[in-house]
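Saturday, quiet lab. Running sequence design on the structure tokens for the scaffold JK sent over.
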């Protein structure tokens, strides 16, 4: 069954705790937390202190996507804040492999990701060291962008690698995900869909989440 990870970037931040409860009660599998530092990407969002404050509202796994430079500096902070998995960018400055190793040393799941223009082979050196690959189908740093069609082959590439080497590898997709694009990503090999506005614009996201969880090669639109 496809996993659904609502992106909290699209929630009402004045009610973050309540929005996390809403996400959990709607049947989501993870809460996706977009952390931006104003350097790797131009925008700023929130950091470990906010995540720590929000942690007591829900038991849903926290999946942190660090859009920050030299992420190894802050991995321990996000682990202590209550994150269950942390994903870092291949394009970020610093020792990215050291960040992956530190995430594992702290007992968390480690993920690797890249922006649409980056060659998929930049993932190769990390694939046997991570638990999650996040395929960005928009450029990191902004919500509400249009889905990049050229990223579908990246999903297929990682899926083929996983079938040959690590069937348990999670393949997540983030950016412009809705009913149509989500179904196509699952058909290409993704098993986790990250979505923001397509879910949070709904008064009740539970039916949409239930629909998406049923996506697969033979699912109807």
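Result came back. Writing it out in full:
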């Amino acid at each position: 069954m496809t996993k659904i990870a609502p992106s909290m970037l699209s929630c009402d931040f004045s009610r973050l705790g309540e929005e996390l409860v809403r996400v959990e009660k709607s049947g989501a599998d993870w809460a996706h937390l977009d952390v931006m530092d104003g350097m790797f990407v131009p925008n700023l969002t929130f950091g470990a202190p906010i995540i720590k404050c929000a942690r007591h509202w829900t038991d849903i796994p926290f999946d942190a996507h660090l859009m920050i430079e030299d992420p190894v500096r802050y991995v321990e902070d996000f682990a202590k804040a209550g994150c269950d998995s942390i994903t870092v960018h291949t394009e970020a400055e610093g020792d990215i492999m050291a960040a992956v190793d530190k995430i594992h040393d702290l007992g968390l799941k480690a993920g690797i990701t890249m922006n649409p223009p980056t060659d998929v082979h930049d993932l190769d050196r990390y694939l046997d060291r991570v638990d999650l690959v996040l395929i960005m189908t928009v450029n990191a740093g902004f919500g509400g962008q249009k889905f990049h069609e050229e990223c579908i082959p990246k999903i297929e590439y990682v899926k083929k690698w996983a079938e040959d080497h690590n069937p348990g590898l999670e393949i997540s997709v983030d950016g412009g995900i809705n009913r149509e694009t989500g179904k196509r990503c699952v058909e290409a090999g993704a098993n986790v869909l990250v979505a923001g506005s397509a879910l949070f614009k709904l008064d009740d996201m539970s039916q949409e989440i239930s629909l998406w969880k049923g996506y697969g090669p033979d699912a109807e639109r």
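Notes for JK: Strands lie at 3-6, 31-36, 62-67, 85-89, 109-114, 132-136, 170-174, 192-195. The mean pLDDT is 94. Ask whether to fix the surface positions before the next round.
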